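Course exercise 7: structure representation. Students receive a sequence record and must write out the corresponding structure in token form. The form below is the worked example handed out in class, using CRAL-TRIO domain-containing protein (363 residues). Read each field label carefully; the graders check that inputs and outputs are placed in the correct fields and that the protein name is recorded exactly as given.

STUDENT ID: A-19
EXERCISE PROTEIN: CRAL-TRIO domain-containing protein
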Amino acid sequence: MGIANQDAVKQFQKLMEEVDESLKNTFENVHQGYRNETLMRFLKARDMNVGKAHKMLLDCLQWRIESEIDNILAKPIIPNDLYRAVRDSQLVGLSGYSKEGHPVIAVGVGQSTFDKASVNYYVQSHIQMNEYRDRVVLPSATKKYGQYIGTCVKVLDMTGLRLSALNQIKLLTVVSTIDDLNYPEKTDTYYIVNVPYIFSACWKVVKPLLQERTRRKIQVLQGSGKDELLKLHLFVYVLFGFLDDDNLTQKMFMQIMDYASLPHFCRKEGSGSSRHSDNGHTNNCFTLDHPFHQELYKFVKQQASLRESIAPLKQGSFHVNFPETDPERAELAKTIESEFQKFGNQNQNGLAKSLSGLRVNGA
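STUDENT ANSWER:
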């Protein structure tokens, strides 16, 4: 770790020693024993400005207390049929691990409809997966690989993306804002695959609006992305902390992930489906029948049963305080909506069927 980074972390540590016990308690669920690494995540998210990073972390901890996030893994979405409906319309799952040990999170962006439950259930489900990742998946990966694993990689499937995606912009903006403010720097790389023309046209306009730190993380791959994800890449490992001129580095070639960890929608070039896999539902990490979701749901129910002796389990969604969208993100959402509408206007004849019945949130 460079001297400047060390000094920033030390300053941050001193500030955190002064916070009250309630904030310290919820912070334990955030750092999971890796306090300095967590402080560095918040520092990176605020360009190494200690004051801004400190405020960001305090706001995050206060949000956790007010929204009872520490208890969210003891609040199952019930009944089971409702949770299955959420899983069928919010396509996300764990397909495996990268060669470096990072969890591979697959997301079916184009075919997620978010139309089977209320917004609160989708937000609850999203936060539960974040918390399960941070409290269970990442600590297990750290133990398995014998080194600290604090981030994941995400593979985003754009199959089926169409103008009706405008209906989900409000929800996706809420979810992404929650992630940015409370789970910063948890994703190393976003791999975008199965890209339709509508995404390519929109990406040209949106990309320049993103922060450089975010742009560096996004890679748009050709086709299903299988060839790129499986081929050998040059990786540079920093042997001592963060990348500085004085640090020793080691270089080696290896795959991003092996075939077993490849999301099902990447396995066949041109297969064009987020919902199906080579062997039915077995390899489809989106479905509730996949081992990851079975383990997650079982864990949440077990945590709930432990708390039932204190308070009876109630049906209903877990209401979370939605953070205010910052002006930059609001402008980005507005730009995406504008580009989608522009695309629709330019292709009215060819997309007449897709446009029928289209309603934009707030319209």
